[in-house]
């Protein structure tokens, strides 16, 4: 198949050669150089090809530096090659010893020399400041998501278009599924050997995974996180991947984790619309979370996405809430309730789609899509984009990728700039439960968002937290749709107004353009 | 003290004589008659008075009928009298055997004859239909709460006024604290022996509890549930009850449960504003919940009330969520999120107070207070009232009871009537997350609430769930403030409008009075 050949070429093109991919046959100790901190050091070994290596052969490596030891699962990559992918959390020398039920692969030892970060490597994204995210090197990560479930199941040409679209977009996370989607266009290869109706659930398909990994790497090169959806209910009885036997579910999860967890831009989404998966129970997803949590040596972010029934995101294996709801993204007080309840970061991953879908969940105007990013931010949460506008082939971004046709993305890019200029620790709700529509860092930085309202002025009043008399503030008026920033010449000086608020000493108001989609950015001078 | 004497008289007045209160000294088996199903059968025994009976003597009874056995804790009631209060869940004969570390109280046996319910006894309130409540006999219980923290700490005269106020009010639940409130007027007795600064934390004060129980019974006679607040942060360093040693906390909980749990109108609220209790951690409240859950033989409803930090109401010992938030009660979509997340009944116990408080949490107009009841109902939740309007003694209902001075209670009575005429199984959100502001039972019963909006008409359109062509509906316009019900002469006949909705066949709209606080009641003909 042409697709497969191109895939192999692409692997090199994408620079996976930087990994130590050469298969090693000799039992002697060896040293691997050139691995980068938070990059991938890959151990490759020749091993048995008889029987079914996917089932019969176990492999892992204990990788140690001083008192720290990490057990990293290995996997069979076909053609008699076994691999262990290690993403080193620190520089210097790490020593590995393999464990296997096969003598050939057991007790293999060596060392890995890890050098410093390259320029665009900030490490994996983690939860920071309870409700926010940061890269492991401390650089803030302000999540601006999008969704394209089956983009990797398209032709190489369309995949290339998708990557080009992402190059020109503001998105730094994409939600994407491992399994194909029965209701949108898909092309082989598949994660299992075989074809629809004839899958061998005991044999994975390395060709599929190499291609998938090449795209993970392509996203990583673009500083885009890959929120990998492990299960979804859109099988449409075409593949049966939503209804695997229990043992196959677990093998699948362990194989995916062994192959992909070393990519530092990987996040795990246990499922899309888990509550719409008719063959699985909530307890199954509890189990899936725990399998992934225990198998993943790097503790990548973990969440689950719902249709109507919120998962209990208080459960300890959930790192952040992944939310689908249009209504919640229309009102910052609604969205902030989620933060308050789960005490974790909240990503409004699906707030309905911009587009012209015949269904009401895909009919947002560009203005409304952009507004939901601002509303979510004022709630101290993060937001995801999606687009349902058919191209000449009746394909849509949210299904298969390709090009964007909507009007929101450029405004989301403006929004991203504002966010990145904002406080490093993240934007938190200020004076919640009083419909202030105000967020930021008390005493330092405030965003106030008016949404659809078209006021002619705003009284300079701020809630007392973090404020003192005589503090000075500058004000910028942001037209979030027309992407303008207008800095007011005045400096506003605070004076206590009452037991709750401070106001401008001169009692000044701020004139506003009486248009929708206006925000104020108020910063300490 | 005059108060104490009056209390003793009151005990008889309140009909506690109906319990089998006579202390029994003989070791022979005896039979108690006259106990009512879900009433209280009380066993009383003479026992040791030496040492400290509160610490030294353990007592419980195993009470059995056929294969069902209930272990009921006993308590020391002073003057050498020990009691076990049993609220029998079924009619017929129950056999008891006591257990004690004192020979005198150990192995006492007898039988209890339980007869049928009296007219106003529907049994205890329990969770029903996941999000709602019903009495044990199946009668729906539509919660209409109010709060008066320290009403039982007032003079007998004021307490009598409070009960009279409740007689004329719509409220069928009152939130009330065991411990006094340092910032409002209080009078002895106290739960512990002694006085402020000199409490003996190893001795409870039976006189306090007998008075408290008399008021519980007075509430029960009025069909009012008592949501008993076990801890609160308003001690103000006057009593130290918010900072008891661990052992005293547990003894207190066990003593309260042993004395009060047999009252069928008891609910347990672990705390008011638990997160404002500076000497207690969240883990303490987990523990308190578990102590109460294990000690209470009747499984009374259990909740906890917060200030800013929601408790994790998914925890298994929480029967329903008890919420404080003005913002949440302003928007049904906000409130329904809580139901969705916790999958349990939600009571918006404090939605701010009607009144003229200098603080913003006590400044609601009567209209706004009433509106929150309607909004909460449309969210499939329940709501509580509170009033902060000072009387001539600077006392307010929410602190000390007395009279109500606001304008909301009569409208809440109108609301209660609507609720009681509504579907037995409760009112649930219909087509959530689309800002329909519609709730009821699909295909049967709809409430639509307009709040502050003042529309001139409403298009007859309903979401498809439960609907078919040609179904017929009647419409009533409810003016929730002026308490009028206007039935429209027309009958509306359904026809499918699109993939989501049905509309009136003739495309009719409903003319509305262009006033705020309007609701529609739409019922199947």
Automatic annotation (TrEMBL), chains A, B:
Residues 435-523 form the DUF5605 domain. InterPro entries: Apiosidase-like_cat_dom, DUF5060, DUF5605, GH, Ig-like_fold. Pfam families: Apiosidase, DUF5060, DUF5605. Coiled coil: none annotated. This is DUF5605 domain-containing protein. Residues 130-385 form the Apiosidase-like catalytic domain. Residues 36-101 form the DUF5060 domain.
């Amino acid at each position: 198949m042409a697709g497969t050949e191109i895939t192999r070429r692409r692997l090199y093109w994408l620079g996976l050669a930087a990994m130590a991919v050469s298969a090693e046959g000799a039992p002697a100790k060896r040293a691997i150089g050139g691995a980068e901190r938070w990059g991938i050091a890959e151990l490759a070994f020749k091993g048995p090809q008889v029987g079914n290596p996917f089932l019969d052969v176990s492999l892992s490596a204990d990788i140690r530096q001083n008192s720290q030891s990490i057990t990293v699962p290995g996997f069979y990559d076909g053609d008699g090659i076994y691999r262990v992918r290690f993403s080193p959390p620190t520089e210097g020398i790490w020593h590995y010893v393999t464990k296997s039920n096969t003598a050939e692969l057991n007790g293999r030892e060596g060392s890995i020399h890890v050098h410093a970060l390259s320029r665009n490597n900030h490490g994996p994204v983690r939860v920071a400041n309870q409700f926010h995210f940061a890269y492991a090197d401390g650089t803030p990560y302000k999540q601006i998501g999008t969704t394209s479930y089956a983009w990797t199941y398209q032709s190489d040409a369309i995949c290339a278009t998708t990557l080009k679209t992402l190059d020109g977009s503001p998105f730094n996370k994409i939600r994407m599924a491992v399994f194909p989607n029965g209701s949108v266009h898909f092309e082989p290869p598949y994660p299992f050997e075989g074809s629809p109706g004839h899958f061998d659930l005991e044999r994975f398909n390395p060709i599929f995974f190499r291609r998938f990994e090449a795209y993970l790497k392509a996203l990583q090169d673009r500083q885009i996180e890959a929120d990998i959806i492990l299960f979804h209910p859109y099988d449409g009885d075409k593949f049966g991947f939503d209804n695997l036997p229990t043992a196959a579910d677990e093998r699948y999860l362990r194989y995916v984790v062994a192959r992909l967890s070393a990519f530092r831009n990987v996040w795990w989404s246990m499922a899309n619309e888990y509550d719409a998966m008719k063959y699985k129970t909530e307890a199954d997803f509890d189990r899936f979370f725990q399998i992934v949590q225990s198998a993943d040596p790097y503790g990548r972010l973990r969440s689950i996405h719902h249709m109507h029934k919120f998962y209990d995101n208080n459960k300890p294996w959930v790192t952040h809430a992944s939310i689908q709801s249009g209504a919640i993204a229309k009102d910052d007080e609604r969205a902030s309730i989620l933060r308050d309840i789960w005490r974790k970061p909240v990503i409004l991953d699906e707030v309905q789609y911009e587009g012209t879908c015949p269904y009401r969940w895909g009919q947002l105007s560009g203005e409304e899509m952009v507004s939901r990013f601002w509303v979510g931010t004022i709630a101290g949460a993060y937001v995801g984009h999606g687009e349902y506008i058919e191209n000449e082939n009746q394909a849509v971004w949210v299904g298969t990728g390709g090009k964007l046709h909507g009007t929101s993305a450029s405004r989301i890019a403006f929004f991203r700039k504002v966010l990145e200029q904002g406080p490093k620790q993240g934007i938190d709700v200020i004076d919640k439960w009083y419909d202030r529509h105000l967020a930021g860092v008390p005493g330092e930085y405030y965003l106030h968002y008016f949404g659809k309202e078209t006021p002619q002025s705003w009284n300079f009043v701020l809630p007392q937290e973090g404020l003192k008399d005589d503090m000075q503030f500058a004000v910028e008026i942001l037209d979030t749709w027309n992407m303008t920033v207008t800095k007011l010449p005045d400096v506003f000086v605070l004076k206590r107004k009452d037991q709750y608020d401070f106001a401008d000493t001169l009692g000044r108001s701020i004139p506003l353009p009486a248009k929708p989609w206006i925000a104020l950015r108020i910063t300490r001078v």
